[in-house]
Structures
1.
Amino acid sequence: MSTLLLGWLAAVGLAAGLVMGFGVAPREVTQGNVQRIMYLHVPAVWVAYLAFTVGLIASITYLAQRRPGADRLAHAACEVGTVFLGVNIATGAIWGKPTWGTWWTWDARLTSVAVVFVMFLAYLLLRGAIEDHERGARYAAVLAIVAALNIPLVHFSVYWWRTLHQPPSLLKPGSSTMPAVIVTALLVNFVALALLGAYFVARRARLLAVEEEALA
Amino acid sequence: MLPGLLWLGFILSGVLGLGRAFLVEHENDCWEALLLAPGDKSAIYLGKLTGSLVLMLVVEALVLALFVLFFNVDLGPALPALALVIGLGTVGIAAVGTLFAAMTAQVRARELLFPVLLLPVLVPVLLGTVKATEALLLREPLAAVAHWLKLLIAADVVYLAIGFLTFDVILEG
């Protein structure tokens, strides 16, 4: 019941996000309408990192308490985080073609996100490679901890390269240089995508529980 | 170009060696013996880590000597700083590598899965070591690569801590 409510909240949020992104937010002067993809691109990466944080906490909880529920939450959160990171990479490429003139470049921030994406793909691969369910859960929890704690290291190592990507406009020290209406549109879309992510995680965890029951 | 080539040799030899770290136990059915060993399980981690580390450092010294010979590089006064960078990088590679080798020892498709898990995680270490090696070969002082050294130390501490704390979880079976 509460999962269904979450789903409807996410649907309402996404509708509001579309209205904000295409209706309320103004057309950007230099980039034109292409800039509007930011309302999906930026919140997607925030939700992905939020999901990986949940995955890290759930993995530590699983190793400490060995509750199967924590393992299922970690699995679902890391999987959903990987999907949202994939959305971030795909929308970034679509934005990059008309703006930078290329789908992909080995720029620092693109590279770092790609590395994080591959780390969590490897996590999902490990999940699939181990037949013994309990052992798979333990190994995956350790790998999730390594991968999640590695994210700041990846970002720093890559930050010290020169970067073509524009510096973060919102998550930086000092006041924001963005107009308030764009920030609002961005935050509405973030809340909508976060609700959608939470809904996906809840559904996926439930599906994993049903799978385990069926196999047991 | 040259620093990347040098570290490519280091990482390839490292991955080959680390991947076999727990093969002896697996092939001889000694995994239970590791479980039965008295004392803290993290001691086994440190032991395996030290073994791999010594092997890797010996191979790296040989590769470096050949590198100097065939590419006609004059290391000169840069050698101590270079040794520090290589040492810090190798500790990072061996720390994660030992943990992942234990994880993949009992899994089918082990040879495939081990590098797939290891290489993306090692990106910060490889970036740091290659960039620092490049600067040192250009005769820049150690202070110019201080940020990379800090990153390598941070990576080593994080990887060693995770390996030390989670190894008993891996060893359970």
Note: Chain A has a mean pLDDT of 89.
2.
Amino acid sequence: MMNRKTLFAAVIGLALLAGVPLFTANSYYVHMVITIMIYAILLYGLDIVVGYTGQVSLGHAGLFGVGSYTAGVLFMKLGAPLWVIIPASIGVTAAFGALLALPALRVTGPYLAMVTLAFGTIIQILINEMTFLTEGPLGITIPKPSLFGQKLSEQGFYWLVFALMVLSLVVVHRILKSQLGRAFEALRGSPVASDCMGVSVYRYKVYAFVISAGFAGLAGCLYAYSEQYISPNTYNFELTVLFLLAVIMGGRKTRSGALLGAAIIVILPKLLDDLELFRIVASSLAVLISVGAVVGVLRKMTTPKAMAIPVIGTIALAGFSFWLESITDWRLSIFGLMILFVVYYLQDGIVGFARSLFARKSPAADSVSVDGLDTSRDAVMMAAKAGTHETGTDLLVANGVLMQFGGLKAINQVDLRIKRGTIHGLIGPNGSGKSTMMNVLTGIYVPTAGSIVFAGRSVVGRTSSDIALSGIARTFQNVQLFGEMTALQNVQVGLHHTFDSNILDVSLHTPRYKREEKAAIERGMGLLNFVGLGDLATEEARNLPYGKQRLLEIARALALDPQLLLLDEPAAGLTAPDIKVLINIIRKIRDHGITVILIEHHMDVVMSICDAVSVLDFGQKIAEGKPAEVQADEKVIEAYLGGTAT
Amino acid sequence: MEILLQLVYSGIALGMIYAVIAFGYQLTFQTSDTLNFGQGDALMLGAMVGLTLVNMGMNYWMMLPLVIVFGLIQGGVVERIAVRPAIKIKSEFGWIMSTIALGIIFKNVAENIWGRDDLKFPSPLPESPIKLFGANVLPMEILVVVGAVLMMLAVEFFNRKTIYGKAVVATFNDRDAAKLMGINTGLVITFSYALSSATAAFAGALIAPLTLTGATMGSVLGLKAFAVAIIGGLTSGMGIIVGGIILGVAETTTGFYLSTGYKDVPGLVLLLLVLAYKPAGLFGKSAIKKV
Amino acid sequence: MLSIKNLQAGYGKVQVLHGISIEVPKGKVVTLIGSNGAGKTTTMRAVSGMIKPTAGEILLHGKRIDGLESYTIAKQGLAHSPEGRRVFATMTVTDNLILGAFPRLTGSRPKGDVAGDLDRAMDLFPRLKERRNQLAGTLSGGEQQMLAMARAVMLNPEIVLLDEPSMGLAPILVEEVFRIIADLKSRGVTMLLVEQFAAAALKVADYGYVLENGRISVHGEASKLRDDPAVRAAYLGGGH
């Protein structure tokens, strides 16, 4: 739900855009705007991968090419009509997206970038070499498409592209605002936390690439019709870098940024062809930045040192432009410099920068309207479906667990029996294996030996997201929140499992989706209220004070409707009043029928709320029992304080 | 059969070039967890600078050390401009994009200085092939293999025997602990980039007489060398030599038996396969996730 | 020799130390004890420059070292044997020790007799002598701990910081480690020792500080602290 002002501005903007062929008869400009819109379609999709899941994709020019060539080949070989070619382009490219996702599954960062680069390069080679299909370097000619038997004019084609662009915009926007968008962002925020909240990193990576590829395919197909001639060397590395520049310069995670970015990369080369114009622009830019720098330093908003590079750079650029005869050959260097500039000085892109100047809240914080929603119910009551079992029976039984890393036995033959409805403490000196145990229980490590049975099913060998969905939730020692999302959105990621809606439901805003989204907001607010963060729902997680971040992690974990909640040092770094709040919350959780395993170093916390305590030392269990018993146990005292003999 | 052996020889020479570039990837990755996406362009610049020096009348053998010095400077520049600021703001996206950007700029500058066409690099050695086990080998190809091996050995020697080399290895092992030893790890990282570009530039000057020299020669080479670096697991020196040879031979044979247009495909497919199934590489060790 | 005044430090948003003050006089062994999460390692890291303090001062020989890079601080004669040992795994024992003397070999500190010091280090740590050409990564936990300590001593330092030398070691190795610490003390090496094992630490130290939740709760002569009930309470909770 966008707020009124943005919606209004968007409608006006789009209306203006629709009217372009009416304002000007010059087909050069019309064609230029068509190209901008086509690129925008691709960038909406690219933003999913780059802006939301946070990966660098160097293969989108290749996917763009697949879309174009599907259109070209289908037309050339089969004479297929428009209404066949569009879905075919989308489908085929999406399939290629899935193919690309396969090697990309297990890698991130630079490896993933290389994978996409290799993929894009292979596609370009294949298009060039498979002449029996693609005519290779000769290229394919395609006339403008026909709609309802009539061949489209330039104007008609414009409105077709416009309609599809608006459609793409709406679909992408809806996807990204839904549980799918949250899942994508979670992948970037913390892949480990995603898996442990039931959002499988593998699966959503594939979705991100497939959806992104679908849009690239649509764009490619329209591009083929627009240019009326396609050839392999268009879809090269430079184009892919241009797409990336557009996304980051325009501003990631925004639709207007994508449109702006598209405009920049289309208009810029034309600008660079006109040397006079470029000189004027470069000089103006140098003056602007220099003045801005002086103002900034005088107002103490920045230092001379920080402004040195932009000022010198733009002046040098202006000077360079006067020395040159033609700037066309230096196009790519300009693009390279622009990338450097954006990466270091304009990380949120132009739109992001503008927003930070004018808006006080981040775009993520659209206010959540809770009128008409029922948030009075204690959200954790849902989890009490676990209450159909009796307290005191075994919930989790671990036998002979061995976790070996090379020669090191981090966990050495540990047995653990956790009873339903209890708070079970796990303590021990540094390096005793507590966090390792937690990682084993949540599938992050696979134990070398031993059995772990939870609610009748073995845990060993299952993926983290599968384990999470079967009822074990956790928090982390080093807070693993999804920083750029709001508190409510973080909790909603934990609620991902409550959604059955698929991409169609999301795009069309079907009743099912609307129902599920409403329920997610209600429940999310309820959970936030449970931990006392209700009024911080629209704050970005990374801006919350540390103590509240830890509570947010607990709320998020509870969203999984777990039967077992693992808390990894929840009190670490908390002040005394925060610890009191924490203890209360843990007690309330237990009272709702959720079993808790608590790793802690704060003895006061452990002693005051635990029903039973197990003590680890050197990966082995050295004591177990009620808190007071353990506190007085000689072996425990020695493990912590050291022997009196030495 | 004779042709096959010939292809193998060429493949080995080509493979050693990949290995040297891959070696450069390893160097920077080990000390700073970053890679230079413009590594291929460093090779290209080495070849172009070498060509200019040779065309000005300089002896090939005198040119080589100068090219190495050029590479050192170029690598240092890349680190200062593209990598150091990104490490400071802890942005992986940052150094990926900025090393790409610098690579593009270098390539564009090269296009403008040396033109877009491929140029012929005069060979310092006789161009007539020698017979080795019944098949033809170009003397230049032997030089490439020898040069590459010598360079890698030199670096190994540096790492093992000099105190500064040990400081580099220490930085690779544990950056924080190295700092505690009084080692300026920032300088080490700059140095590893400088060395990485220097080895690439050297490789460029070596391979230039064998292939077409032009502004575009670096791009795909850099990508395929990355495949080799991955196969070696980014930590094993032996692995990249083996990987390089495998790839080199695969390419020369594909190029001959299939078509030259497809010759880049085996390397790229290899990269995809390795990353899909064994991201730690065939020779490397997988990292243990810590939460 | 080392003065820590009102040190505040933490990691990002988490403030771990809330203003602690510690004095380490020349030639003495001072120990900092406390339970996990109390901030002991954070203190060491702030002193050796691995993290930057948010407030307070750290002085070595009267000169401020807070906020400096750890490699600069090392060159001033502060050696740190870090938590978890952190030896250079792919290098030999000998090379690890040589690297400990890096500032001496590269002109940042007076060179002295590096080769001689190397021999003396091997004599002090016979286990290392046996394994001098072995890769450090293949050593056992106890041997790595000794290597880390020897490596720190190779700097010919003014002061040595020992961070949790007993962590993860079997009791018999812990005894050996503390025997070596006592030996170093008898040679006049100034040390700041952070330990979870209060008993052993207080036995070898001259003076002790107890760290609880980022603040010093108790401090005094080591022999007196050993029987103080406040020490036990700091670890196991309850009753204070």
Note: Chain C has a mean pLDDT of 87.
3.
Amino acid sequence: MITLTPSPFSPSEALADFEKEARGAGAVVSFTGLVRDRAGDADVEGLHLQAYSPMTERGIEKAAADARKRWPLTALRIIHRTGNMGPFEPIVFVATASAHRRAAFEAADFLMDYLKTEAVFWKKELTKTGSRWIEPRAEDYSDSARWTQTNMETDRHARHK
Amino acid sequence: MADILYFGRLGDVAGTGAEKLDIPATITDTAALRRWLDAEKSASGAFLEASVRLAVNSEIVVDPHPISPSDEIAFMPPVGGG
């Protein structure tokens, strides 16, 4: 399930709900992204996130479908904030469940790379000295490129079948 | 009237996140729209950057893509969440 929300959410409640939904899975992996309070030398006062509905949701749905094709997932959950948030607030929550840990780890990693570099969001950081729009770093793009450079995961599944 | 959306830093350049515009009849594709708006907004090339993609009626397109007077057209700088 995929949720975009302009309101704060609780990752621990999301994880508890997900564990119920994923009951029977041998592995549950979750990732929570939080607003940092520092950016370089500046104190971060807040973050503003824009989405473009329904394009944003459609893209995430497609990435989730790709993850399900690539790994044998039994459950998947994505929550992403929009609007204004303060330091330490959760921005994103991704949880995956599978029979074994590797698929759950890799699928969560893959989905986070999608969300960082391809999901249709724009992010503005507010500091005492002003605000600036943040675009993905070179490292974010190279992280994301790992999933297109190799088909290692797919190959491994093929071998196991 | 076309609905024009400006996302991310282009909202600051345009001075608004969204507006309705009467696009001149001579502007019939996305490449021409970029040039026209860049001049209208005195944007010094911000609308012409290759990293800025355009979506017409919620589909990302490749320049030059035809546009009609009542389309929703979004200017999208590089995306990224998390």
Note: Chain A has a mean pLDDT of 92.
4.
Amino acid sequence: MKPAKFAYHAPSSLDEAVSLLQRYAGEARVLAGGQSLIPMMNFRIAAPAALVDLNRMPDLDYIRQEGGVVRIGAMTRQRKLEFSPVIAERLPLLRDAIKLVGHLPTRSRGTIGGSLAHADPAAELPMMLQVLEGEVVARGPAGERVIKAGEFFRSLLTTALTAEEILIEVRFPAMPAGARYAVEEFARRHGDFAICAVAAVLQCDGNRCTKARLATGGTGPVPLRLEAAEAVLEQKGLSEAAVEEAAEAAARAVEPMADQNGSAEFRRHLSRVLTGRVLRKAIEEKSR
Amino acid sequence: MSAARPDRFVGQPILRREDHRLLRGQGQYVADLVLPRMLHAAFVRSPMAHARIKSVDLARAKAVPGVALALAGAELMRLLPPVPDTQLSLPAKWKTTVQHKIHNPQQPLLATDKVRHVGEAIAVILAESRYVAEDAAELVDVELETLPAVIDAEQAVKPGGTLVHEQLGTNVIGEFAIAKGDVEGAMARAPHRLKRRFYHHRYSGVPMECRGVLGVYDQRTDSMTIWSSTQVVHWLRREASGILDLPEGRVRVVAPDVGGGFGVKGHVYPEDLLIPFLARRVGRPVRWIEDRHEHLMCSTHSRDQTHELEVGFDGEGRILAIRDRFIADCGAWNPIGIGVVYNSAVHLTGPYKVDNLAVSARVVSTNKVPSAPYRGAGRPEASFAMERTIDLIAATLGIEPAEIRRRNMIPGSAMPYRIGLPYRDGEPIVYDSGDFPAGLEKAVAAVGGVAAFRERQRAAREKGRYLGLGIGCYTEGTGVGPFEGASVRIEPNGKLHVAGGACAQGQGMETIFAQIVADAWAVKPEDVTIQLADTAGIAIGFGTMASRSTVTLSGAIHYASDKLRKKVLSIAAQLLECAVVDLELRDGGVSIVGVPERRVSLAQVARAARPGWDHGRPAGMDPGLEETHYFEPQTVTWTNATHAAIVEVDIQTGRVKIEKYAIAHDCGVVVNPLLLEGQIVGGAAQGLGGILMEGYTYDAEGQLLTGSLMDYLLPTASDIPDMELIHLESPSPLNPLGVKGVGEGGAIAPPAAIANAICDALAPFKVEFNQTPITPEQIVRAAKQF
Amino acid sequence: MSDLIDIRLTVNGVAHEGRAEPRRLLVDFLREDLGLTGTHAGCEHGICGACTVLFNGEAARSCIMLAVQANGAEIRTIEGLTEDGRLHPLQEAFHREHGLQCGFCTPGMLIAALDFLRVNPSPSEEEIREAMSAVICRCTGYRNIVRAVASAAQKMQVKP
């Protein structure tokens, strides 16, 4: 399975990259890690007229802390995030989730920007953007704009990025000290895309939950914030009854898809089960 | 005359010689072979499951720069001689004993009138690179008139429906029935009866190396050389010789390093013949490497059987009668005929004493990828049906499944045990050796024993955890004929060169046969060359499949060596001026018994044996030191095993964790215990993949839904547990070394063992899983979790 | 539209130059343009791992990389594991533990293991299983591969 022909560009500036995308008017694809794009091109499911290769672009590979925000260049490899002390300290949930993304060899190449822009709903990083209330920075012909997680994922494999925009940075507020967190995933095999995944970050004060953030991936066309479930915890605390009620709320909120790996009902069921497990795990673990 | 063998190599865990090149990346698979001016082939494959071909327009494809040839079925038919009927033949003895009917529609090298499965080849492109060939393939315009797709085998047998092969007038392309005893009477009288439907789904070997063929025609000698990733070089040569209209002596077929076969590469495919044909036609070498997407839709599938099984038994759980009617969905073509299905029938009762048995089977054409043997070749399907039945009998009576097995197993003291049915070689089935109950005990003990497990299970259930114990047993006929050939030669340097008809795909044959030859000749394995998978090495051979090569090639080597040894000792006697009875093979030579310093080396014997002036042969003895033997085993020799599994089932997610897996296995005399374990564990891993995650699925239009490795889920290191292996050894009385076949057994029992374990775990929910695979969602639904 | 692009790279310590179409896959460039057929293509969609090479020191699947991406890169393949003809401890361990049968996935297994042991020199069995799940094998059932990696890990730690 060999790709069809395409024109190849390896711009060395963002301006050049953006103007290439404009030139091709939607017929060009951005090459980041290639772990999703190249397989599709080998199958000839994707046959873009041109590839704009961002791997030669300087200054898109960084992890910086600025105040309470962690800023990550879009071309930062998942592997780098996995072993980064900054991520381990400031965004430990992200580090845990990254370990579920494919395998070490795919993380060598896969980038955080590429994964978010591809927006596979069963991927872990889009779910992370939601649960950690992150935002992305897009650069386009008209300049840069910031897009919050809640507005970024539009529909299946579709983001708010236009055809001429490049995702250049991902920002996460650092997880607050004492936050409880966990991620649970159900996949057929280790490293596979999630059939259902749930992640949680909880800020607690005794038995009260002052702030709950939950997100799910794998069930529906986009990674979803489970706001109803969050509300249950914030209003009713962290008892087992509240956890079960939150899990029920999560199950009601998802819009599950059906495919070879499971029916919609099964995914909805898994949402309930994994939400409960993630919350119990987060509550029981010592905070970092 | 025996060989004095201070170091016996058979039985030793000798490390493999194949590793030397494979670990260094110096293996040579077909895709690694490059010849000057080589062209690359790509196929245009049908996107529809069933359609009439209205037209194939190659004009745009031919215009692509770098394309050397584009050809479709209609034109190819005009160029080819008629394709001879060359199905794996059934011996006359079987044909006259077993009531059967077989049709054998011959698959054309490229589809002509119809396409009969998604993936069937319609046209072929030859180009300077595979990239260009694929570009051109995309530009071939095929006009297809869709026909209804025949997807459901049970529907396909009903008259009046769409036919896959109209000229046959039916979709039932094979059927047979066997029976012994009085099933009607015994079933009617049975105090208990159970009837169930068992479905074993469609999956296959999916080796890591896809198929590949390289053909090169030599103008000077009017001969063809073919490299193919195949298990059957001599069979391929025979068919290629027909297609090319060349005598076999001018067609050479070699299988270089082959990256896994498992049966999938055990027959001749259209590409094996078309590629060499085209190579001669264009006068340049042509290489085709199957890609993974193609592999999943055109390399053979397997299994896919539906059994309706009824069992009659008494209050003690003793089986009184079994009636099994089953259908096998063999897809659009049937390259191996009725062998797999017949295997299912005669392996059904496995290690159990069943005096009244009736099995009938139908092989049905559908618009799916053709089926052929895959590791186990009908036995996993049979074992699954039988072993689930045993557990159902146990559940009905409230008796332990292990105990039901004990009560029904043929004891070791009953060997040799006549089954009363013919094997597919036509010979009456006789279990020659083995202690099935001992294997059962050892496997169950290895997982901690039943009583201890039941206690753990009870305690776990109280905590809401579901553990299950499952057992799967089988017997396997191995080392089937008709024959295998070996030529044993002593080289001028005194070393051994052995050529054989077997073909390797990773089993370590170069290593184990060197061990066998080393023992036979009192040399070191390093001094033995094993040449396999090359028709130039030996003119007549059969090939590797059906767990046969250890048995059949070792037999051929043994008897060839016997003949040659007589000659060697005669010559040595002349050289040493003594009697043959005083001599023994020792340390790479021949010496006088008790006086090892009085010796001649094999090199000296070889020199003496040469034709010409001043030779050293006894008067009247023919020159040369080479003997060929074709070992024709009388019939198969029987192995057996018990697999025992302890699983934990998470009823909320359906995840199955295998806590413990034990295999008590008997394959007779073990040539190399290290390699043996590799075969068993490898086979078991494939069996586990089959029951838990692998599978080819189609939609109602015959579209293959599993066209990539993202959909066809192969088990990884995280999915396969460690396994405990227990060895029993009942030497085979049917061949000189006492060996039995090893390659397939591991894959036979896991579906049964795991299904039984899951059902045992979910016993509180009164769950029956009588089909494969068992998916997480099925488990969660069965446990009524939503 | 598909002009050939110059590629300069180092493979197993040896400098190479070549030209390739942008669409040429790295695995094909290594195997066919450079003649290093030790790396194998098992699926061409980035799942099976047989094509794994070290790319700038990190394991990566070469069937889903373009050759042009390797311009300026340092690559190590299975052919580059031996040192002065001596087998790497991983190769020795795979041999001793019978961690290969047909050998087709073995290049991927060795490279993936090499990379893994660098980031986790002292792994548990479960960690080894999880890491080696990056490469698919159809022959061995993984038991001996896990043993080989564990054995190699021990030997590699002994070295200073």
Note: Strands of chain C lie at 5-11, 14-20, 52-55, 58-61, 74-76.
